[in-house]
Amino acid sequence: MNFIKKWSDKTPKILQAALNLALILVAITLVISMFKETWEIFHSVFYDTSENFYQITEEILVFFLYFEFLALIIKYFEKGYHFPLRYFIYIGITAIVRYIIIDHKSAMTTLLLSGAILVLLLSLLVANTKTVRRDLN
Q1: Which residues cross the membrane (predicted)?
Q2: How far is residue 116's CA from residue 124's CA, in Å, rounded to a whole number?
Q3: Computed from CA positions of residues 72, 73, 75, 76, in that sequence, does the dihedral angle turn out positive or negative?
């Protein structure tokens, strides 16, 4: 019985350490990808005149997705191993905007995606209220 108690106390710590290590590896990968994307944006704007406005805008939005995921990982460690909900909402909004820019051929799809952004914005409004946010206490 003592053996089970000993392992049940250690298991969450071991799993938390594995999760933290995995997140650090993901963060390193995201930083490398973000710098690569920054280079591609720089190259597209100053050297490659064949790229159009939508392609450059898409690259910038991909950069912001990397940036937001890195901010999410930072907040995870700052907030005591907790992912704030509003950061997922920010990422969702950015991802939908990116998708609208890439694929805007169907007016109905664009309208539905705009509705999804509205729902996410309303969710963000609720998530930022004092009763929901943990970091205001």
Answers
A1: 14-35, 60-77, 84-101, 107-127
A2: 12
A3: positive
Structure confidence at residue 96 (pLDDT): 93
Separation between Cα atoms, residue 2 and residue 5, nearest integer Å: 5
HSE, CB side, 13 Å, CA atoms: give it for residue 50: 0
Query: What is the DSSP secondary-structure string of 57-97?
Result: HHHHHHHHHHHHHHHHHHHHHHTTS---HHHHHHHHHHHHH
Q: Token pair of 23, please?
A: 């997140």
**Which residue ranges in the chain fall short of pLDDT 50?**
none
pLDDT of residue 134: 64
pTM of the complete model: 0.73
